Amino acid sequence: MTQTTEMIHEDNLPGHESALDRKPQWQPRYPGSGRLKGKTAIVTGADSGIGRAVAALYAREGANVAIVYLLEDDDAEKTRAIVEDEGSEAICIKADIGSQKMCQKIADQVIERFGAIDILVNNAGEQHPDDDITDITEEQLRRTFQTNIFGMFFMTQAVRPHLKSGSAIVNCTSVTMYKGSWSLLDYSSTKGAITAFTRSLSENLVGDGIRVNAVAPGPIWTPLNPCGGADEEKLKHFGESTPIGRAGEPNEVAPSFLFLACEDSSYMSGQVLHPNGGIIVNG
């Protein structure tokens, strides 16, 4: 494990996946076919949830993976073991992506270890439910934007000198960007910013052969939900309002991240995929 020194995180998010009674399903659902063979990917928030499932699937498809995480050492080491069990190499980097300096250190450490960066998955995020806009403190508002959108800017800035034609960036936005969320005002706002960032960054980089796309998951069972302030009643019925009638699992989202990172999506940039249980968002 490599650890940066400047930690600015102040609460207990995103939470330990190892502590959940109901474990999210991260296991890849089909055999690999070498679609990312020889590639190196950075996945932020890869210690648990969607990030872990993406790391596992990327490893199965042949990529080496830099596992960037905030606090949960045990979860990160589990993801490392998953990647290595798939026959790929992994490095765990403990860092707060809300710091530009720390994002630069992440990029430097990945280059030192693997010599290249081919894929950046901007997945890490946090949320803090509030019923009333007046309950959102300035500190919380700044922190949510710092992690969810500033961190994507900082990570992209750090890896940009190492990206080349054929490289890919995949950002994680959310169904809340499209349909709104009455209790996640600041979180949903950052997801709107992420979608605009994705489309604009695509225009900025596509001429250099670097594709930028995003994934907008619906309600997915990850530590972010039980550890992010949701009450027991909401958790009991989490995901039931979708047309499919249940919450999704991380390994049902990871294939979207794989598709957008590999040559299967070579004619796609500036787009958003929607693994959301059938919610129609028209975007």
UniProtKB/TrEMBL annotation:
Keywords: Oxidoreductase. The keyword Glycosyltransferase does not apply. One of its GO terms (molecular function) is oxidoreductase activity, acting on CH-OH group of donors. Residues 1-33 are annotated as: Disordered. SUPFAM superfamilies: NAD(P)-binding Rossmann-fold domains. It comes from the Bacteria. It holds the Pfam family adh_short_C2. Residues 7-24 have a biased composition (Basic and acidic residues). PROSITE patterns: ADH_SHORT. Gene3D superfamilies: NAD(P)-binding Rossmann-like Domain (3.40.50.720). Belongs to the short-chain dehydrogenases/reductases (SDR) family. This is NAD(P)-dependent oxidoreductase.
